[in-house]
Design brief:
membrane; His_PPase_superfam; about 40% helix; single chain; about 350 residues; Rossmann fold; eight-stranded mixed beta sheet; alpha/beta; elongated; transmembrane helix; Phosphoglycerate mutase-like protein
């Protein structure tokens, strides 16, 4: 079965020299890249695999790929093929300090053609210059949002895994890209949000267990092995994993937190949802008062439109529902209510 290795480029050299949008690796970075190659070699149980590296077009990623390929060849894995993918390029957000020429990646692509002449160890790598750099996704344009960038990376990994699904021989597919891209790829494989800084030149490994099914067996973030961090991704089902219950539990937890928040922000006197009897009493009071006011208005209007004899009754009361009750008790057809101070003058017809 195929293996998928995810790797952030090694340490860039702009901490020691003048920074640019496309710095080379530092000496420490070169050593890190070789160490990553050794890690991959030690993990493999069989050397009978074709090795292909898919790299971002940035120089630091290409150098990491070349050093990696050199160590894999030393482990008798044979010649390594290198393909450059524009979709693996850096996230060009608006706060980026150094931005490459906005030429849809043409400047970076020109450097790829010179890789074998400028890198001493590049003889170990078969650079596929016939490969369409936009085959699995286009160059990431300047100013895209994080969510747009993450979605483009998700499309890339779906295209990549589909491309090698029907390969006749087991493939070792190595993706060398940038930290934010590796983070997005791990989110895709785990079907969960991650808020971790991806370390340089540390590998994550997923293996194909069946057609369209990938199992993340090692991650570079130091997350403990377990159902929540070791997930089987079903590519055809679009993000679904065998551990979707983890996402469901997170959703329930968030709903509970929101419920507690709204409960605390509501004054205690108005928490009627916790007192059903109070709700019923309040509803009954509202209906009773509304009925009384409506009936009083109706009989007043009716009585004023007719020439009738009145028998007046004056009483002192503390509620407006008394007139309606008197109307029924006295078997009267109409009733007029006159209010003076706190006295209700009830006229029965």
């Amino acid at each position: 079965m195929n293996l998928l290795v995810l790797l952030r480029h090694a340490q860039r050299g702009d901490t020691h020299t003048t920074p640019t949008y496309d710095p080379s690796l530092s000496e420490t970075g070169l050593a890190q890249a070789r160490g990553a190659g050794d890690d991959v070699s030690e993990y493999l149980s069989s050397n009978d695999m074709d090795v292909v590296i898919h790299s971002s077009p940035y120089l630091r990623c290409l150098q990491t790929s070349v050093e990696l390929a050199h160590r894999l060849q030393a482990a008798h894995l044979g010649k390594v093929s290198l393909k450059v993918d524009h979709a693996l390029s850096e996230w060009l957000h608006l706060n980026l300090k150094f931005v490459p020429p906005l030429d849809n990646g043409l400047s970076l692509e020109a450097d790829v053609a010179k890789i074998q002449s400028t890198m001493p160890l590049a003889s170990n790598v078969s650079v596929d210059l016939t490969w369409n750099t936009a085959a699995l996704g286009s160059f990431n344009s300047y100013g895209v949002s994080y969510y747009e960038y993450r979605e483009s990376i998700n499309r890339y990994i779906r295209n990549l895994t589909s491309y090698y699904t029907l390969s006749r021989k087991p493939m070792l597919i190595i993706v060398v890209t940038h930290g934010i891209a590796v983070n997005c790829l791990l989110q895709f494989l785990l079907n969960k949000s991650l808020f971790h800084e991806v370390p340089e030149a540390k590998i994550s490994i997923a293996k194909q267990v069946s057609v369209g099914q990938w199992l993340l067996v090692r991650n570079c973030l130091g997350l403990a092995n377990g159902p929540e961090n070791t997930s089987t991704l079903s590519i055809p089902k679009d993000y679904e994993t065998t551990f979707s219950s983890n996402a469901l539990s997170e959703k329930k937890s968030a709903e509970k937190d929101f419920s507690e928040l709204t409960k605390e922000s509501t004054p205690g006197a108005f928490q009627l949802r916790e007192n059903p009897l109070g709700v019923l009493c309040l509803l009954g009071m509202v209906l009773f008062v509304s009925f009384s006011l409506w009936e009083s208005f109706w009989v007043c209007t009716s009585a004023m439109s007719r020439d009738v004899d009145f028998h007046a009754l004056s009483l002192h009361c503390g509620t407006c529902v008394i007139p309606a009750l008197l109307c029924h008790l006295c078997d009267s057809n109409f009733i007029i209510v006159l209010i003076y101070d706190s006295n209700f003058i009830v006229v029965l017809i």
